Design the sequence.
């Protein structure tokens, strides 16, 4: 066994029962396959049965209630609509056809992200990454500061993309992959 694997085994052996259960259920996607296998072995060694699917769903519902979503609500119901309104005003006030095209494209993308995030759909969560990238690439082009494009891009990445990356990455589990059942409205 390699030193790294032995170190990993020791770390897992020092985890509490609840931490191990969480690791092989709720946080499964956050760990390497080797770590998950070692955690399952440790649970068996401790004579702890793995959690059933119904219990996992209950844990997920509990976790979803515990995570704050204030920024998500603001982002969906305030920030995106303001971006759409800004894109519409910009499209109406500008005369450059290329700029109009990109503004309308941005507005359309914003509407799609609004719908997807509001309905808590995984495709909306993924599309939001594209929206953040487009905003970050377009903002330095519209700014009239003395900084270079790449300087502004670095600032935007640090102050806008990074906090949103951290926030949305931690809340990925709030977004579902499957389509809603017929009549299921949000």
Sequence:
């Amino acid at each position: 066994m390699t030193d790294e694997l032995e170190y990993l085994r020791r770390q897992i052996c020092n985890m509490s029962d609840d931490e191990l259960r969480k690791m092989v259920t709720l946080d499964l996607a956050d760990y390497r396959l080797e770590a998950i296998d070692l955690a399952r072995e440790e649970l068996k060694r401790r004579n702890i049965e793995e959690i059933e699917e119904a219990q996992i769903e209950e844990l997920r519902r509990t976790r979803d209630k515990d995570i704050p979503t204030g920024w998500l609500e603001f982002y969906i119901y305030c920030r995106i609509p303001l971006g759409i309104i800004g894109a519409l005003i910009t499209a109406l006030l500008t005369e450059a056809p290329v700029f109009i095209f990109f503004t309308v494209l941005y507005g359309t993308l914003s509407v799609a992200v609004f719908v997807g995030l509001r309905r808590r759909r995984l495709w909306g969560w993924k599309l939001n990454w594209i929206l953040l990238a487009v905003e970050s690439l377009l903002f330095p082009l519209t700014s009239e500061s003395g900084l270079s494009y790449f300087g502004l891009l670095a600032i935007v990445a640090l102050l806008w993309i990074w906090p949103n990356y951290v926030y949305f990455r931690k809340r990925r589990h709030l977004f579902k992959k499957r389509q809603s059942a017929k009549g299921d409205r949000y």
Remarks:
- The chain has two domains: 3-62, 67-174.
- The CA atoms of residues 121 and 179 lie 8 Å apart.
- Confidence is low (pLDDT under 50) at residues 179-186.
- The chain is about 75% helix and 0% strand.
